[in-house]
């Protein structure tokens, strides 16, 4: 899930404990609004849903189903809807689980707050795994790499504990800063040749002619993250995807990809 897809989140709470939980979520979710006992309830919630806003309800599932039933259209078009209990113990992917991304969203949110995801779609649930891809100038300082990586985690709404590994291009196999970064954070570090990286070039968010002329691929960070994610998936037919497009500082680039594993 890219940062852009996290915009337009509405958290709906109906009780004081729910409001307290909602405030915690609001502080962690970029662009989220908290609606406490919105009035008129049905009209406001239905309008937000019809506008395609992502919804988190902290209340009984029955209330949500009865409220949204009149405006449900199609699972391929409806926005994702999550439901949580007041104690924040469970995150239920109620609507648009697979097609709309509610399953993934529920898993990510549950991991963030220490809750249990409850996936209600028929598809067998798989745990998402995340990989970091990085490129950098030669002899890039560890501090510049570490700062960028943690900035990217914050943008993607992820914790370091959710990251499986760090990846780059093979000419960076001896890059001291990247090696030290992986060691410091407890991540495995793996590099890939341009033949492997070029296989995912159709998934890149941007293509840099300069980078291609320099190293033979159109982007190091995104390509490396995607190829690294391919190693995590349980089913080779499952797609891998970027959850954070390339970010950069003056000395390095970083991207995050996701795959599914059992």
UniProtKB/TrEMBL annotation:
Residues 131-257 form the CobE/GbiG C-terminal domain. Coiled coil: none annotated. GO terms for biological process: cobalamin biosynthetic process. Residues 45-122 form the Cobalamin synthesis G N-terminal domain. InterPro entries: CbiG_hydrolase, CbiG_N, CobE/GbiG_C, CobE/GbiG_C_sf, GbiG_N_sf. PANTHER family: COBALT-PRECORRIN-5A HYDROLASE (PTHR37477). This is Cobalamin biosynthesis protein CbiG. It comes from Motiliproteus coralliicola.
């Amino acid at each position: 899930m890219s940062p852009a897809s996290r915009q337009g989140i509405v958290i709906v709470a109906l009780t004081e404990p729910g409001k307290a939980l909602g405030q915690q979520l609001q502080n962690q979710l970029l662009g989220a609004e908290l609606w406490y006992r919105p009035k008129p309830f049905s009209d406001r919630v239905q309008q937000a849903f019809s506008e395609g806003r992502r919804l988190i309800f902290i209340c009984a599932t029955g209330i949500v189903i009865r409220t949204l039933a009149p405006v449900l259209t199609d699972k391929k078009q409806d926005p994702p809807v999550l439901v949580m209990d007041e104690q924040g113990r469970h995150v239920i992917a109620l609507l648009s689980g697979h097609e709309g991304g509610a399953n993934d969203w529920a898993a990510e949110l549950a991991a963030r707050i220490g809750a249990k995801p409850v996936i209600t779609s028929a598809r067998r649930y798989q745990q998402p795994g995340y990989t970091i891809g990085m490129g950098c100038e030669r002899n890039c300082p560890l501090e510049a790499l570490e700062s960028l990586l943690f900035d990217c985690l914050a943008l993607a709404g992820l914790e370091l504990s959710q990251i499986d590994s760090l990846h780059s291009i093979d000419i960076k196999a001896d890059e001291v800063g990247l090696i030290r970064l992986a060691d410091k954070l407890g991540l495995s570090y793996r590099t890939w040749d341009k033949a492997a990286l070029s296989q995912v070039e159709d998934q890149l968010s941007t293509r840099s002619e300069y980078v291609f002329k320099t190293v033979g691929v159109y982007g190091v960070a995104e390509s490396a993250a995607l190829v690294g994610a391919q190693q995590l998936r349980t089913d080779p037919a499952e797609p891998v995807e970027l959850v954070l497009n390339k970010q950069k500082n003056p000395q390095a680039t970083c991207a995050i990809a996701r795959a599914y594993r059992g």
